[in-house]
Design goal:
The protein is mainly α and 168 residues long. The radius of gyration is 20 Å and the shape is elongated.
């Protein structure tokens, strides 16, 4: 291994950020689903017709504040998990090219593809959240549907990722 290829990995910082990210995602899922149910399902009858529960506004505020914290922890995980993994894939491919063994990397390729798709989905999730804050009112319906659908789907994907990590 060449000196410039060696990357120090902050295991402690990465582990703490990973745990913060896991628990943050769990609480984000809980507040997001609770908001969705409180806003669309558990309506209260008022003299002005059915209205969302008053706690729905506080759930949305908590969800947004926690999302910023999880995004910050995600940046740390990006540095200690995503970037080194992508560099390792590039190094393995370059080494195989130099050695003349270009056999397919099935498992590694699947992990790379799933990583790229996860990063892209997280980017769309963040952009839809920003859109819900700043986009015109006409865009809120499809942005909201995109945001909560992708949020639930990503929760399943990340849960699968973490369970697969525990098995190895």
């Amino acid at each position: 291994m060449q000196l410039e290829d060696a990357q120090p990995i902050a295991h402690g910082q990465g582990r703490r950020a990973r745990h913060l990210l896991i628990w943050g995602c769990i609480v984000l899922l809980a507040t997001g689903v609770a908001w969705l149910l409180g806003h669309d399902v558990w309506l209260q009858q008022t003299p002005f017709g059915p209205q969302p529960h008053p706690l729905v506004a506080w759930l949305l505020r908590a969800h947004g504040a926690l999302a910023w914290c999880v995004t910050l922890a995600g940046g740390v995980v990006w540095q200690v998990h995503v970037r080194p993994a992508w560099r390792a894939v590039r190094r393995r491919r370059a080494h195989r090219r130099r050695a003349g063994t270009l056999r397919p990397l099935r498992h590694g390729r699947a992990r790379t593809v799933s990583g790229v798709l996860t990063v892209l989905a997280l980017a769309v999730l963040l952009l839809s959240a920003i859109g819900l804050q700043y986009a015109p009112e006409e865009a809120h319906a499809w942005l909201s549907t995109t945001h909560w659908t992708l949020g639930i789907a990503l929760s399943v994907v990340l849960l699968w990722h973490w369970i697969a990590r525990l098995r190895h």
